[in-house]
From TrEMBL:
EC code(s) of this entry: 2.8.1.7
Enzyme class per UniProt: transferase
Protein's UniProt name: cysteine desulfurase
Keywords: Iron, Iron-sulfur, Metal-binding, Pyridoxal phosphate, Transferase
Cofactor: pyridoxal 5'-phosphate
């Protein structure tokens, strides 16, 4: 298969796998144990924490390991709200956008059932949050603004720096779901002065089942109420024995991403642009979604008007791509992201998402574009 679904997940880098292996059956200690095996594991976790922090230019103490971005988003959003409630705070508004991942929208919906006012900012036709709405709706009653770094379908990269400034001007916290951006574009917490940031290792060539929440000022800062109880691991914010092999893998994945990002980003960018150019040349009615300038370098969301994405995918024998977010793949509804940027229902059903990656070769990209073009042309002749 030619794998063009790197937004859904990425293959684990062989360097990551090699680093993880000893921690399954040789250095298998529990980092909480006082003996040598336990201490070796604790040192490995500490090293990984440094590696993840280095990628974000953060302090190691500001990283809390979780099971992924879903858990990090829940901890950030619900944890901040519960903490504010228990401290007797009076802010009751949370501001987010209509194109967030479910793992942001559903915690917000949960808080709405507890009396919080949740505002979902609309986006423009490129997928950028509408700034006039943000300026009007983020105010002194806002506790938290939660905005994604980059969209998993159309790749649009939000102006997180400006949003952080706006939130801070009103004393609100800024949480950023950076699951799709970390390891794909250069970003750090100096350029993006966020308070909380979620990431997931399997989106940047690390293992599945591990992620992290960056917390400005550190996990001991009492800014969040834990969602689970039962242990003091991860400052009590994420109790339970830490998954040492996964954390070691995430650390190496972060280090590799940090070292290779600039070159990798350019290579994938060029490959993506060439793939898109070939498709658009052969099928001039096809249109690209998202912002062409501020877009994830590996992302390509294309609408082939009149050709249903499901039919197109069924006619691709060696190319693995998708219609949208993997967590919404069971849904029969059109993509809410495409509708939010103004695409019609019909167009939304005729859109595919491609995501190139570290292991996509030039030859694979060429074969993929040919196969996609052939399939679209074949389906169009059937409809003519
Ligand atoms: C933007 C965004 N946030 C959060 C997540 C959730 O990540 P995970 O399933 O690894 O917890 C995803 C996964 O697709 C995502 O794309």
């Amino acid at each position: 298969m030619i794998y063009l679904d790197n937004h859904a997940t990425t293959a684990c880098d062989p360097r990551v796998v090699a680093a993880m292996l000893p921690y399954f059956s040789t250095n298998y200690g529990n980092p909480g144990s006082p003996h040598a095996l336990g201490q070796q594991a604790a040192e490995a976790v500490a090293r990984a924490r440094e590696q993840v922090a280095a990628l974000l230019k953060a302090e190691a103490a500001e990283i809390v390991f979780t099971s992924g971005a879903t858990e990090a988003n829940n901890l950030a959003i619900i944890g901040a709200a519960l903490q504010h409630e228990s401290a007797g705070g009076t802010r009751r508004r949370i501001v987010t956008s209509v194109i967030e991942h479910k793992s942001v929208l559903e915690p917000c919906e949960y808080l709405a059932t507890r009396g919080w006012e949740v505002i979902r900012l609309p986006v423009d036709s490129h997928g950028f949050v509408q700034w006039d709405h943000a300026e009007r709706l983020i105010d002194e009653s806002t506790l938290l603004v939660t905005l994604q770094a980059a969209n998993s379908e159309i790749g649009t990269i939000q102006d997180i720096r400006s949003m952080a400034k706006l939130a801070h001007r009103h004393g609100a916290l800024l949480h950023c779901d950076a699951a799709q951006a970390v390891g794909k574009i250069s970003m750090n917490i100096f350029d993006w002065p966020v308070d909380l940031l979620s990431l997931s290792a399997h989106k940047f060539y690390g293992p599945k089942g591990v992620g992290a929440l960056y917390i400005r000022g550190g996990g001991e800062d009492q800014a969040l109420t834990p969602l689970m109880r039962g242990g003091s691991q991860e400052y009590g914010l994420r109790p339970g024995t830490v998954p040492v092999p996964l954390i070691v893998g995430m650390g190496v994945a972060a280090e590799v991403a940090g070292n290779e990002l600039t070159i990798e980003q350019q290579r994938i960018w060029l490959l993506r642009d060439r793939l898109e150019k070939e498709i658009l040349k052969a099928i001039p009615t096809a249109t690209v979604n998202g912002d062409l300038k501020h877009r994830l370098p590996h992302n390509s969301s294309i609408t082939f008007r009149g050709v249903e994405a499901e039919a197109l995918m069924a006619n691709l024998s060696t190319v693995a791509l998708s219609t949208g977010a993997a967590c919404e793949s069971g849904s029969l509804d059109p993509s809410r992201v495409l509708l939010a940027i103004g695409r019609t229902h019909d167009d939304a059903f005729c859109t595919v998402r491609m995501g190139l990656g570290r292991f996509t070769t030039v030859e694979e990209a060429q074969r993929a574009s040919k196969e996609i073009i052939d399939a679209v042309q074949f389906l169009r002749t059937l409809l003519a």
